[in-house]
Design a protein that fits this description.
This protein is α/β, with parallel strands linked by helices. The chain is built from 7 helices and 11 strands. This is 2-C-methyl-D-erythritol 4-phosphate cytidylyltransferase.
């Protein structure tokens, strides 16, 4: 029998770098809040996926009214977020009973494809973990005291979400004390003693972080519409 599959979508952040009064996960692109695009992407992958949505408690009412306004009725289990991404993920994981696979995904990565999600579950089933990553397109330099030094970019990967794990493994890893230097789930699992399997993510799976990301996301969704045959 297939392992139960969960999507843990974290949207408990403040969006400081976006600088918008409306939390960035609620900003509309192509007429729909970013977070709804993200949830739709997981339901496009599977109609039986169980979605856990982490939001700041003060935003629960905004979410409910946006759902009413957009007639959005995808089932989600709501959970209150924490002060950091680590704490929000940990709270979300607590909503999962029993074993299975969980894809942890940033609520503000609305352009993730069903193919990437599918790959993450298939690989995690075999390897225990599956973390989306892409190659660097630009050169990088390390900032050092008194200057900078060129680095070999082929030795680095840009890490995205989904980051998918066996539930028991990632829950155990999240029992560790929080370390602010660990900025993603793969780092937490690695600290817990697990090796990490990367797979090819996608350049369009951007994390909406600063205002120009909204321009890209809007244009991307428009281009998908025109690309579809009539
Ligand atoms: N306490 C937090 C902080 C972040 N996140 C989520 O983690 C994802 C990645 O974080 P990031 O892009 O850094 O979002 P923010 O923390 O909202 O942005 P900023 O750092 O600019 O404030 C986002 O979906 C964000 O909502 C979360 O669930 N809980
Ligand atoms: C998890 C993540 O999306 C991987 O790239 C990223 O680390 C989250 O963003 P943050 O700015 O570190 O919160």
């Amino acid at each position: 029998m297939k392992n139960p599959e969960y999507a843990l979508i974290v949207a408990g952040g403040k969006g400081t770098r976006m600088g918008s009064a409306l939390p960035k996960q609620f900003i509309a692109i192509d007429g729909l809040p970013i977070l709804m695009h993200t949830i739709n992407a997981f339901y496009a992958y599977s109609s039986t996926i169980q979605v856990i949505l982490v939001l700041p408690q003060e935003d629960f009412s905004t979410w409910t009214s946006l759902c009413e306004r957009h007639h959005f009725n995808r089932p989600v289990v709501l959970q209150q977020g924490g002060a950091t991404r680590f704490q929000s993920v940990k709270r979300g994981l607590a909503k999962i009973e029993g074993d299975g696979l969980v894809a942890i995904h940033d609520g503000v990565r609305p352009l993730v494809s069903a193919t990437v999600i599918d790959q993450s579950f298939r690989i995690a089933e075999k390897e225990n973990s599956a973390v989306a990553a892409v190659n660097l397109k630009e050169s990088i330099r390390e900032v050092q005291q008194g200057g900078t030094k060129a680095l070999d970019r082929t030795k680095f990967k840009l890490i995205q979400t989904p980051q998918t794990f066996k539930v028991a493994l990632i829950k155990r890893a999240y029992e560790m004390e929080e370390d602010l230097q660990l900025t993603d789930d793969a780092s937490v699992a690695e600290r817990g003693g697990h090796s990490i399997t990367l797979f090819e993510g996608s350049y369009d799976n951007i994390k909406v972080t600063t205002p120009e990301d909204l321009v890209f996301a809007e244009a991307y969704l428009q281009s998908q519409k025109t690309a579809k045959p009539a």
